[in-house]
Each structure stands twice: as structure tokens, then as C-alpha cells.
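Figure S4 source data
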Amino acid sequence: MDLSNHTRVNEFIITGFPTLQNIRVPLFVLVSIMYTLSLIGNMVIVFITRYEPSLHTPMYFFLGNFSFLEICFTSVTVPTMLVDLMREKNIVSFNNCLAQIYFFHGLGGVECLLLAAMAYDRYVAIRSPLRYNTIMSSTVYIQLTAWCWIIGLVLPLIPVILISRLNYCGSNVVDHFFCDILPLLRLVCNRTQLNEMLSFFICSFILVGSFTITIVSYVAIIITVLRIPSPAGRKKAFSTFASHLTVVGIFYGTMMFIYVRPTRNLSFNMDQLVAVFYCLVTPVLNPIIYSLRNKDVKTALKKVLFAKR
């Protein structure tokens, strides 16, 4: 392609939800409420797991990290979504767009790995309760969490750096409600097979790898639960795992639908709808499913709230 047709793009226009302009005010209110609930729920969990001594265990250490991660993850995309709903044209600078791509994929990768670590922690707790404190020592679970953050935040650097060096053919309109790799590659003049393949393999490595660990851990837990002689005990355990698996299924299902598939036959309207689930819906559900339904967390919360009384 002639280099004269290449344009140095300094900013991008985020299209947002052009087909929903007639109901953008109710959607803005709904998204704002869900975002606020997500922030409050996750902040409560971060606070309670940090300052309540009875929750200083590996499971709640993971939950505290997970809730902090959810606050960061939703804050990468949801504010942009709110701006999209209130403006006809949302302009984002080139560098800010790349930063949003990096943090979205980096924090999303950390979330996948933390989900796998949490599932493994529950597996050890149920399969080897007598050796649990030895296996999941403070050194082990802190290092495990640290590696989740390191791997998740390092791997997306490669595709983001490559994307920053690409040429764009005049158009700077991103067909999404935030900056993402695949919509940006549609605007590129160069051949994008390398970038698409690299993004596919990195996403597959994190998503499929962590999903495999998560599912294997839960299957092993279910097999152990089936051996519980008490029907009431089995029912209680299965009700807990069913809610956990629902959140895991929604998150991994929507992420794999977009990132672990061929990229040439994309329906971006469908992608936008699916992206809303893992950007907004699951972060609202996670505090309820993982912690606020937990008896220990509720007891600790009451203890903190009514300590002076």
C-alpha cells in the first residue's frame, strides 16, 4: 500500500452504542447504579478482609485481591461506557487508547489467573484439610497471588507495543464502547495476521490455561463432596459451588467468545453485548456470590459495623 495513504492517528472516536441513542438516559442511570454497586461491594470486601483478623486466611486473601482487581477492571471500561452514553462522539487520544487496551487485557488476565488460584485453594482445603495450612502457607499464597499479577500484567505488553507501531489508513472510528485490540486492527493498513495470531495465542494461553485449572479443581471438589455422607451437607456444598460456577461460566464464556475464536468473522454488535457482561454484570455479581453470601464475611462485617455499640 502506498505510504501516502498512511495517516498518523493522534486520536480515536469511540462509537459507543449508536443504535441505543433513544434510551441512552435510562441506560446511563442503569449502568451508573450497577457500577456504583460494584464499587461499594468490592470496597467493602477489600476493607473487611484487610482489617478483620479472623479473615486473615488464604481464601480471604485471594478474595481481597480479587475484589481490588474488580474495582480496577471495571474502572478501565465503565467510565468510558458512561461517556459514550451521554455524548454523540467520544474522543480518546492515541496513547490513552493504548493504555486502556493494556490495562483491560492485563487486569483481565490477572482475573483469570486469580480465579484459577482461588479454585485451587478451595480444592486443597476440601481434599486435604489437615495439610491445608502447610500446603497453603503465607509464603505460598502470597507468591501465588504475586505471580498472577506479574504474568497477567506482563503478557499484554507484547501485542500493545506491536499495535503502537502499526499504520492506520485514515479512519479513526473505533466500533466499540472502549478501545480494544480487535476493533483497532480493523483500522490498520498493514497486514495484521501476526498481531491477530499473537493476541489469539496470548488470550488462549491465559484463558484456556486458567479455565482448565479452575474446572479441574471444581470437578475434584465435586467428587469429594459426593462422598459426604450427609445429604444436607452435600446440598449446602452444591448450592455454594453452583453459584461460583455460574459466575465462572459467565466470565470465561463471554471472554472466550470474543478472544478465543477466528477474528475474521466478527459481529461487533454481538461483541458489544457480550462485553457488557464481563465488564459490568460479573463484577456486580462477584461480591454477592463470593463473599457477601459468606457467613464468615457477614459476621465480620457486623462485628466491624457494630463494634462501638
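Figure S5 source data
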Amino acid sequence: MNPDISRMARSLYEWLWQHEFWLPPGITWEDMQESEDVHYPQPRDLLLSIPFALILVVVRCAFERAIALPLSTKLGVRDKQRPKAQPNPVLETFYSTRCKNPEEGELIRLSKQCDLPVRKVERWFRRRRNMDRPSLSKKFCEACWRFTFYIISFFTGLAVLYDKPWLWDHRECWTGYPQQPLQPSLFWYYMLELSFYWSLVFTLPFDVKRKDFKEQIVHHAATIFLISFSYCGNYIRIGTLVLVIHDASDCFLEPTKIFNYMKWKKTCDSLFMIFSAVFLISRLVVYPYTVLYNTYYYSMEIFQPFFGYYFVNTLLIILQLLHVFWSCLIIHMVYKFILQGTMEKDMRSDTEESDKDEEREKIREKEKNGTTYFSKVTSNGHIQRNGAEPLSSRAHLANGHVKER
């Protein structure tokens, strides 16, 4: 390696790991030396989360194929048959490189290039967009996997923390900080959660994309940074509280989706109300008091502010802003539920477009021309409803209306 590059890398490494960044005033890395009986978090441990994340991706693929997909078939989850867009190189190139939902002017220009009516070009884009939308079985499999993980991680967290003093007395999060030995159960719990969020990042291009896709990216990034930084700075006690609080509501979100895909309306509505209550209480009440107030106020009883203090609080506040964003969506859906008596479709999900829009446009055009079609028109011009006897004895079409004789 070039000596200058090596020297720059070493300087950057030394600058990044200055104890002033990571440890409270008066504490240096020498004070964090390990012994045979005492082990502290080491930044290099985080590298284990990458291969573990890849293992989780493999486990997920096997789970969805061997368990979730057959389960969806047995539970009656059926994919809707979608008409496919006919192959068209010009439209496909525009769709892939320019825009998936062209404006009216672009539709006219494309129709001239392809020598097709504007309506057919519009229908081609509608069907092409539907082809890219995930199938119902794919959504079901993804929800099953996440539900399985959240249940495992939530109860793992409770099993790890139930006998820990900081779960019941939040001031204990800072007793002896930062010289708090790392217990093996906490290490593996951290690795499980960090590996899962890395696996979500790896599968992000293939997962179901919803309207809050950008917020999901910010959430995953903030979570990974928070878990990693809290591990390196030995904020593991407060980190475990954050993880358990988040998993609590997620355990109800995924089964709500599953029953929604199964068309079990009443069960879905009941679970949604339970999820809403748990989410709003855990994210808007428990999290601010147990985590934000804890890190902002109780920690100051032990040490003076330093860079790590400000940084970890910034990440926690970013998470809280995301909580507020999602809480607004949930409150809106609960409001609609109270008014309408049924749960509104997930606001984060895209609505599948239908060719019925085009059919309605055709009907309106025919009505303008003075022609109205019922369910069946006989060959001799008389009207017949669903196999009933002809109505010629009492009615005929006159300017598009039914007239009694």
C-alpha cells in the first residue's frame, strides 16, 4: 500500500477512535481494558452481524418458500390475475428509463411514436405498473417472516432482561457507566437485532415497497447506527430497552397484515385496534420517558455531556420523529375506522389500478351519444336483463331512455 495512503488511514483511525468522542470526560480506553473475567464491547464484534445477516436472508428465503407460501395457499390467499402489458420496446424503454406514470403530453408523443391510440398507451402503462406491484402471496410471505422474527426477538428480549435491574429502575442504565461488563446474553441479543436490520437493508430492493419507503430507509439507517454506536460506546443497557419497546408493537402489526390478506375482516380490525393502542402508548409515552428522558436527564447524574451523549440523543430523537410520523398515519386510520366502522386500507400501500377506469370512460362516451347499455342487448334491438323475458312488450329505447308503451 502507498505509504501516504497508509499514513492517512492511520491518522483517520486515530482521530475516529479518540476517547473524547466515545467516553465520558475522565475516562480513556486504558480504563476499558479487558481481563479474563471482565469483557467489554469491542467495535470489531460488529463485523459478525454481516455474515449473520446473510444467514438470516437465506433462512428467510427457505422459510417463505417452505412454510409461508404453502400456508398462504391453505389459508385461501389468492393472487389476482392481472392482464399483462403487450411487449413494446419503445414504451418499455420509456418506462424503465424515464417515467412510470407519464403526463398527458408524453402519452400523446408516445402514441405517435408507436402508432397507437392514446388510450391504448395509457392502458399499457397501467398494466405495466400493475405487473411491478407485489402479489398478495408475496406480501403474505413477507408479513409471516417478520411476524415470526418479531415474536422471537420480543420474547428473547424479555427473557434476557426480566432479571436485569435497569428494566425496572431506569437509573441503573448508568450505574458504573461506562465500565459495565458485557454479558453473553446481551451480546447475542444485540447481534440478533443488528443482523436482522442489516438483512432488511440487503433485501430492501426486493421487499414490498410502500409509500413510506424513504422513511423506512431512514428508520433502518438510524436503527443500525444507533445499535452500532450504542454497542461501541457501551450504551447496551439503554439499547436493549429501545429494542424491546420497538418489538412490542411490531408483534401486532404483522398479524394484522396477515389477516387482512386472508380477508378476515373482523379479526383484522380487532388486531389493528390493539396494534394502534400498543404502538401509540409504547412509542409516544413509554419510549419518551423510558429512553429519551433517561438518556437526557438521568445520564447527567453520572457524567458531563460529551460527543457520544449528543450523538446518541440525536439518533434517538430521529427515531422519535419517525414515531410521530407513523402515529399520524395510524391516528388517521383509527379516525376513519370509528367513522366508517371498518378499517381503511393501509395508507402506505399502493392501490392497484384497474382497467375498469377505462371501461367507465367508454360508458360515459356512449351515454353522450345517446346510447345506454344494460347487462344484455338482444340481437333484434330489445333489452333483456340477465336471461329474463324480453321487454319489447312494454319498453323500447328512445334517445337512450326506457319508455313505457
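The chain has a mean pLDDT of 81. The beta strands are 395-398, 401-404.
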